[in-house]
Structure formats: C-alpha cells, structure tokens
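Hi Q.,

Before the meeting this afternoon, I wanted you to have the FE2/S2 (inorganic) cluster prediction in hand. No need to reply - just skim if you have a minute. The sequence and ligand are here:
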Amino acid sequence: MLACEICVIGGGPAGLTAALHAASLGASAVIIDRNDYLGGQLIKQTHRFFGSKEQKASERGISISRELSLAVEKEKNIKVLTAATALGYYKDGVVTVEKDERFLKIKPQKIIVATGGAEKTLPFPNNDLPGVYGAGAVQTLVNVYGVKPGRRVLMVGAGNIGVIVSYQLLQAGMEVAGIVEAAPRIGAYWVHAAKVVRAGVPIYTRHTIKGAWGKKEVEGATIVELDEQWKPIPGTEKDFAVDVICLSVGLNPLTEILWQAGCAMKYVPELSGYVPLRNEYLETSVPGIYVAGDAGGIEEASAAMMEGALAGLNAARALGYSAPDFNSRRANILRELESLRSGPVGEKIRKGLEKVTLTERREMRSGLSNLSLLTSNF
Amino acid sequence: MRITEHPILDFARGKKIKFTYNGQELEGFEGETIAAALHANGVRTMRESIHLHRPRGLFCNIGNCSSCLMIVNGKPNVRVCVEKLQEGMIVMTQKGKGELKC
Ligand SMILES: Cc1cc2nc3c(=O)[nH]c(=O)nc-3n(C[C@H](O)[C@H](O)[C@H](O)COP(=O)(O)OP(=O)(O)OC[C@H]3O[C@@H](n4cnc5c(N)ncnc54)[C@H](O)[C@@H]3O)c2cc1C
Ligand code: FES
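Predicted structure with the ligand bound:
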C-alpha cells in the first residue's frame, strides 16, 4: 500500500495544474493517468487556443501540455504513475489502481478527481460499424500517431470540436465531405468555421444523420433535413460515399469514481451530464474528495486549469500547508475563473454551476438527502 | 494509411517492428498503439459483437468504451487503443467474450 498526501486521478490540464499548485505549497502528490503520457486531451490540440493571454490563449494545446508535463517532471514533490488506471475507491479511503498488470493500492489523505470527459455517441442505424468514431478518437489517431483512418469523412456536429477536427483532418490530407449540424446555426467560433468553409467543406445546418451503410465497415451515410420541430423531412435525404463518420456531439463527464465514493450527484444538462455537488473549494459531499476540470462539468481547457489550481491549493491547505501569499493567489484564480465565465459565452456554464455549487456544508447535506434515492441505485 | 507530410506536425516514429494480425505479418512502429498500427495497415475491424456477431472497431480511442477488444498474445479483452505495440505481438480478432486459459 502506497500512502500519500494527495492523489490526483487524471493527468490532463486540470490534474497537472492541481498537482503543481499543491506541490508549490509543499504538499506531495501522486498523479495517476491511464495513458502512457501526460496532458489529457491537450496532447492532440494542434490549433491555437481562444481565451485570454493569462490562460495561455493563442498557444497550441500541445505546447501547453508539454509545458505542464515538464514542470511536473521537475517537481520533486510529485510522483507520476502513467499507464495506470484508477479502478475504484473503497470505504476505507483506498484507491485501487491497475498498472502493468499489477493491482496497486493507494491510501491518500486527499483525492482530486480530474478524469475529464468521454465522447457521446448518437443513435442511428449501423452506428456500431467500424468506421464510426468519436471525433476526438480520430484526432488522436491523426495528430498523435500520424495515421489516417480512411479517405473521406462525414462530420456530425458543428460545435468547436467538430469544426476544429474537420480542419485538422484536411491538414492531414483527408477529404471532408461535409459537416452536419441539427441546430439552425453552428456552435463553433466563426474563426474556425471560416477556415473549413474557405476550404470548400459544406456545412449542413438543420440536418442530421439518418443512418450509416456498409457491409462490414462504413461505406456511406445518409443525412436528412429537419423541420422546426427537429423532425426529419421525408424526401430530403442526401447520400454521401464516405468511409469515416465522426461524431462530435459533445462529451459526458467521467464520474465513475465519484459515484463509487458516494458523492452526491446531480444531472445538469448545462454541464453535460451527471456531476458532483461541490462547495466553493471544489470539495464534493464526501470530505477530502475534490473535483476539477471536465469531470465536474464539460467546459474547456483554460477553466480546467484554473479549477485544477484551485483544487490543488485547497487540498494542500486542508492538509495544513500554506504560503504568505496564499489568499491573494486563490483570489486571483477565482477572479480569472469569473472572467472566463463572464458574458454571453459563459452563460450556460454559470447556469449549470449555480445548480451544483453549494456554499455551506449544511446545504450540501440537504442536497445529499434529496439525492439519496438516486445514489442508492448505484 | 500513414501521414507523410503535415503542415504543423512532425511524427517522430520509433523503431520499425513486426507483429502478426490473424496470422498475417504486418509492420508497425515502436511507441504506437496496436490500434494505430492496425489502422496504418488498413485494418479497422477489431472484434465481433457478442450476441449479433457484428463487426466492431475503434470508437473512443482513450480506453473507455471497450469497442476495440482483441486477443493479444493469447490474452482476450485487451483494449488495443491504449495497449502499445511490441515486437512479435500476436494480435487476433476477438469473437465472443474471450476465455482466460491458465
Ligand atoms: C477537439 C478538441 C478541441 C478543443 N479545443 C479547445 C480550445 O481551443 N480551447 C480550450 O480551452 N479547450 C479546448 N478543448 C477542451 C479541452 O481539451 C478540455 O476541456 C480539457 O482537456 C479538460 O481538461 P481535464 O484535465 O479536465 O480533462 P482531460 O484533458 O480529458 O484529462 C483527463 C485525464 O484523465 C485520465 N483518466 C480518466 N479516467 C481515468 C482513470 N480511471 N484512471 C486514470 N486516469 C484516468 C485520462 O486518461 C486523461 O488523461 C478541446 C477539446 C477537444 C476534444
Ligand atoms: S476504442 Fe474505446 S476502449 Fe478502445
């Protein structure tokens, strides 16, 4: 059994920042990630980020992840376990981990869950055929391993991820037959969308995928137009000969460990799924378990890093570590988070967070009893 | 299919290594996942579904969905999207739930 002060589950931007901030106060941390590299989703982001300079905007995600990983490697208070999957959390506070076919037990004093999110799928005939991928999955193949999964792609979903990945597939030499979006307008930032449109990729708004076809693998897809009630309009079907269909219809927070630990959870559509209730320190209803980044609600990398910083500082503080400038550091992070979430862009997130951020432990407990019916099914 | 030219990225590929897929000898690079090496060789089908025997391939590529389970060196249920390729690996399509032979 490995005893440690803080165990950070997930080595994406949230987890890495959490460990760095905790270590900066003198606490020691162990980071666990199931990949054999650190950086999470950032490792495949080759585009320049949006956001403000302080949150590392205009840098590419891939360089941010390199910077964070290097800083973590240099920090002697941080131990990194890669190719290690956190399997479970037990009542006595033990986290179990599989690494190199061995079963490890870790007993931390505090846990920061920064497991990120997983791509959603979409129901349509033949959605299980080889050739139907999550957009992020194809992005990893192409940008991390330099391997193309096919020649011609249909992208489903015109949010930032769908549009950005489409552009990156063009850069990799694949053909993008079209981008399909059920809403009347695209969700992506116009800077990114303009690039794919200039490259000649048609965007079909108010359309959805009706089905995929192919004997053993994807050979094509049919799309159909939607009316005002989002119902398919018969006779508007269009066929595309494609060998790859990418689904970019959002992510779900990865929360298995939080469920298992008995954290009070709530379904919040604005945060893309079930997420844990938390207080302003990002501590969940189970004392000593914190959440940060996409695991607590799908947002973006800059917010994930800020939340990581906050959870890291708070967990270390709860262990008795501090620094003369602790309060001002924490206040700065809170201000940055607030500015990230300000304005119309942040409205959805603000609304979502309002539903799960509780200011008093007492409130959290009453939230817990309301939700006990729900958690007891698990 | 491997990308040979890219406007932003350089792919630092490891040593060339050999492995077999359903008995057929294929090549891949050290440091890549089994799934990446198979895709580079045009193989996108990893297993057969348990009940309806439908072909299944990669979906999430982060070790989360279990769509990509294969038999590797005799061991079933290996998620090839996160398992690294090694010299001489024996990779087979998985049918059914897989059996552990001790
Ligand atoms: C295509 C695309 C484009 C994007 N573009 C932008 C952008 O321009 N600007 C921006 O700000 N954001 C962008 N984002 C979003 C950003 O990448 C994510 O919001 C951010 O990575 C979330 O960070 P995280 O640390 O919470 O999670 P992740 O980066 O998802 O990291 C989670 C980590 O946890 C690990 N993990 C999960 N479960 C376990 C377990 N049980 N055991 C061990 N390890 C586990 C995973 O392997 C992973 O490494 C983009 C995302 C995508 C997919
Ligand atoms: S593709 Fe999802 S686990 Fe491998």
